[in-house]
Specification:
Length: about 350
Amino acid sequence: MFEKQIAIPSAEEIIRAQPLPPALAAVKAERDKLCKNVIAGRTEKLLVIVGPCSAHEQRPVLEYVRRLGRLSEKVKDRLVLVPRIYTNKPRSKGVGYKGMFSQPDPENKENILKGIRAIRELHLRAIEESGLSAADEMLYPENYAYVEDLITYIAVGARSSENQMHRLVSSGIDQPVGIKNPMSGSIPVLLNSIYAAQRPQIFKYHGWQVATKGNEYAHAVLRGMVDNYGNDIPNYHYETVMQVLQRYRECDEELKNPAVIIDANHSNSGKRFRQQIRIVNEVLQNRLYDREFKKIVRGFMIESFLEEGNQPHDVVFGKSITDPCLGWDDTERLICEIAERA
């Protein structure tokens, strides 16, 4: 039984009510181009998707993004910085805080309509105040339509990469889509997901039969894996990445723009947030060691916020209420080091 609570307007209605102004649309279009160039290997720049585990409140996120915008100006010759503004939070057991989309106030009840309006306002202000359009996770494919005009990079999580609807919707997205390896770590499954996202598809979406042309910028994100006993197993090491490259090459039909983004947290770090610094440095060293490794590793995902660690409730300004994150000082140093060694 489903209890109807709040009628949600269509994505078209929501976007008309909170449109992306032409000046900001031009900024986003340029940002989209920069990201595509990195994934396609048309530039030596690295992509760094960095920010809080989840965007739970507007003020600290905007402060973080403004700082990132200023830092971006310093490193733009070597890096493309994309802030994480993740507004949907997956829950392993299906309960708990599910992100700003569902729960715009983490201390109050769910209100999805209010959440949609809140995240559009957040993304619009982020572009305006920092010059940076953001990344978000497509946890629920149907929700993507409400922010499709605002997002420069889309992530498909480990729990979702085997889901058919995620693959199909990814095929209709015009921006880069990073598909994470499934929790099992299966690389054949990951490449099947990328294959599906890169091919034209026909399916039902928002009340329509739709046709897509395929997304040639769909690519792999390595986030580590979990074994049958719940142990985290990293997959950012040289040997693993080179195996992914080999599997890319062995695909029966060509996959366009082979690329790997290394997620420095999650099962790669065992959620020990400070390990992200060491992991990034190891990957940078391997890029110096092997030209083929350098060619396929196109960037990083890093979880970071104003204050390091996490907290159960929103008490400390700019501290994660979900997974622990690097603090700003460490983040700034790490990004500058990536730029020096890119």
